[in-house]
Specification:
Structural class: mainly alpha
Radius of gyration: 20 Å
Distance between the termini: 58 Å
Number of helices: 6
Shape: globular
Low-confidence stretches: none
Strand content: under 5%
Helix content: over 70%
Mean pLDDT: 85
Length: about 200
């Protein structure tokens, strides 16, 4: 039997492709789960800040939109779509079309924000060297690109009397929710880093 290195290379390439697919699927599932968990936590913690089932003055899951697209690109978008599609079922007034449209809007807004910000802020697609100010701009643009399309759809579907009625609370809810989550994450990472450093000494 003659050993053909091309067979080994093809096997290795196929194995690598399978691993990449598994990683992408796992990433999408993690994003969807994080969305659902944070959505449920937000309902429990900040129900008094809600204007409607889709608009709140504090909306923590908005941070998942930003982080998912930053970390996973289009795979994060798929996870956001799946997570939003699941949580949309919490509103019994939504039909299938409403649920699909709102899930698409929720998932594609941060992708458009990512595309826009990497060009506006002249950042590499890897987002290396991102500053706190740039993250704030990223979150603000993401919040705007989420609030405007959602409210236009709410108006066109007869859920709101005006297309601008919920833009301000939704924008600030997304922005504030993102900032809260990012602050908590940065604080947790700082504490972990400090503990790891103290254990080495």
């Amino acid at each position: 039997m003659v050993f053909d290195p091309r067979d080994d290379a093809q096997t290795g390439a196929a194995s690598k492709a399978q691993t990449n697919v598994l990683i992408m699927v796992a990433s999408a599932i993690v994003v969807a789960l994080l969305w659902v968990l944070l959505f449920r936590f937000n309902l429990w913690m900040f129900s008094s800040f809600e204007m409607t089932s889709f608009i709140s003055w504090i909306f923590l899951p908005a941070a998942i939109r930003v982080l998912a697209v930053m970390a996973c690109d289009w795979v994060g978008v798929l996870g956001l779509f799946a997570g939003a599609l699941f949580t949309n079922q919490a509103d019994p007034t939504l039909d299938l079309t409403d649920g699909l449209v709102l899930a698409v809007l929720s998932a594609t807004g941060p992708l458009v924000a990512f595309w826009f910000c990497t060009r506006l802020l002249r950042l590499p697609s890897t987002l290396s060297g991102l500053t706190a100010r740039q993250v704030l701009v990223f979150a603000a643009i993401g919040a705007l690109l989420n609030a405007v399309p959602h409210n236009i759809y709410f108006y066109l579907s007869g859920r709101m009397a005006s297309p601008i009625e919920g833009i301000v609370p939704m924008f600030f809810g997304d922005l504030l929710g993102t900032m809260v989550v990012l602050y908590v994450l940065s604080l947790a990472l700082r504490l972990l880093f400090k503990r790891a450093t103290s254990q080495r000494v």
